[in-house]
Amino acid sequence: MALTNEHIKQRLIEKFGEQVGTFEEPYGMLTFEAPKEMNLKVLNFLYDDSELKFRFLTDLTGVHYPANTGKELAVVYHLHNLEDNVRIRFKVFTDINTPDVYTATGLFSAANWMERESYDFFGVNFVGHPNLKRILNVDEMDYFPLRKEFPLEDQTRIDKDDEMFGRG
Amino acid sequence: MSRPVSYNLIQKPLVSDISMAEMPDGHQGEGFFATSLDKVIGLARKNSIWPLPFATSCCGIEFMATMGSHYDLARFGSERVGFSPRQCDLLMVMGTIAKKMGPVVRQVYLQMAEPRWVLAVGACASSGGIFDTYSVLQGIDQVIPVDVYVPGCPPRPEAIIDGVIRIQDLVGKENLRRRNTDQYKALLESYGIQ
C-alpha cells in the first residue's frame, strides 16, 4: 500500500494529538507544524515508525516572518521517505528574541551544515549543535543578513546613485 | 541585429617569422646604441609579462578563450601563465570576489614580488557589478591597488587583450624609481600593506 498524505496525517494525529496542526498540501506535499519543543520527538517518530520511515533529510532552512509576532522565525525540515518516494515538510516556529531550537544533528548528520547555515543567515540557535558557527559568511559579520530588517544591498558603498538602481 | 563578422579582407604579408618589439628612442652610431636604462628595462618587462589568473566566474571563462588559439594572448608576450604568485608580474582578477574571498586575493597580492601590476577584469572585479549585496566585495580596489579596469559583463576576449595592452603600456613607461617613491608607499599604506 502506498503511503498517502492522509495516512501520514492520521498517524501523526494518533501519536501527537492536538500538538501537531496546520496541515496543508501545497502542490500535493504534506506540510504541518508543531511546537518547537516537540521537533525532535516528531522527527524521531517520523524516522523510527515502521510505516513512515522518513529517514532522509533533504533540506533544513530558516524563514523570517516579521509580521508573525511571537513566531517570527520558522525552521523548515524537508523529509524524504526513500522507499515509497514520499516527501513531507515540517515546520517549527520560534520567537525571534529566544531563537532556541533543538538540533537535529543527533538524528541526521546532514543537519550539521544546514543548521550552521540557518544560524549564519537567520540566527537560529540550535541547542546542542556540536559546532554552531558561521559557515558561508565572513566570520567578522555581526548580524544575520537574511532577517528582513537588514537591507540586501551592501551598505559600505558610497558611489551608488539610488535613482539609477530604481530606489529613488 | 547580427554581429558583423570581419574576415581578413586586407591581407597583411608576413614580413618575418619573428615579430620584433620596436626599438626605443636613443642615439646610435656605428657599433653603438645609447638609451636610458628605464626604456630598456621597460621594453623587456612589457613584452614578457607573466600573468597570474585569479578566475572565479564567467570572466574566467572569457579568459580561457583569450588564452586559447583563437585570440591567443601569447602573441603579446604573455605566453607563460604562472600559477605561483611568487613568479608572476600581473595579477588578473576575473570574476566576483565575495567578501570571504577578499583576504585570499589580498594574500595572493602580498605574495607577489615587486614590481607587480593588477588588472581587474569585468564589472564584478571592478565594482561588484550586479551583485550589490552584503556578501560581495564592491570592487577589488577595496583590498588591493588596481592598475587597469576592464569593463564588461563579461568582457569579450578582445577587451581583455586591450586591458593587457594597457598594462603593457604602463609597464613600458614606468619609471624605475616609481616603486620607491613616497607616493607609491603612501598608496600601499592606504591599503595597510607594509
Descriptive terms for the model:
heterodimer; A: 168 residues; alpha/beta; 5-stranded mixed β-sheet; two-stranded parallel sheet; 3 helices; 20% helix; B: 194 residues; 4-stranded parallel β-sheet; two-stranded antiparallel sheet; 6 helices; 6 strands
Tell me about this structure.
The complex is a heterodimer of chains A (168) and B (194). With 168 residues, chain A is an alpha/beta fold. Chain B is α/β, with parallel strands linked by helices and 194 residues long. Helix content of chain B is 32%, strand content 12%. In chain B, the strands form two sheets. In chain B, strands 3-4-5-6 form a four-stranded parallel beta sheet. In chain B, strands 1-2 form a two-stranded antiparallel ribbon. In chain B, a hairpin with a 2-residue loop joins strand 1 and strand 2. Classes of the chains: A alpha/beta (168), B alpha/beta (194). Chains A and B meet through loops of A and loops of B.
SSE string of chain B: EEHEHEHEHEHH
Helix content of chain B: 25-40%
**Beta-strand percent range of chain A:** 25-35%
Multimer state: heterodimer
In which range does the helix fraction of chain A lie? 10-25%
- Lateral arrangement of strands in the main beta sheet of chain A: 1-2-5-4-3
- The number of helical elements of chain A comes to 3
- Principal-axes geometry of chain A comes out as elongated
Profile the largest sheet of chain A.
Answer: 5 strands, mixed
Question: What is the first-to-last residue Cα distance of chain A?
Answer: 59 Å
Uncertain spans of chain A: none
Number of strands of chain B: 6
Euclidean distance between termini CA atoms of chain B? 52 Å
Question: How many distinct beta strands of chain A?
Answer: 7
Return Rg of chain A in Å.
18 Å
The side-by-side strand order for the widest beta sheet of chain B comes to 3-4-5-6
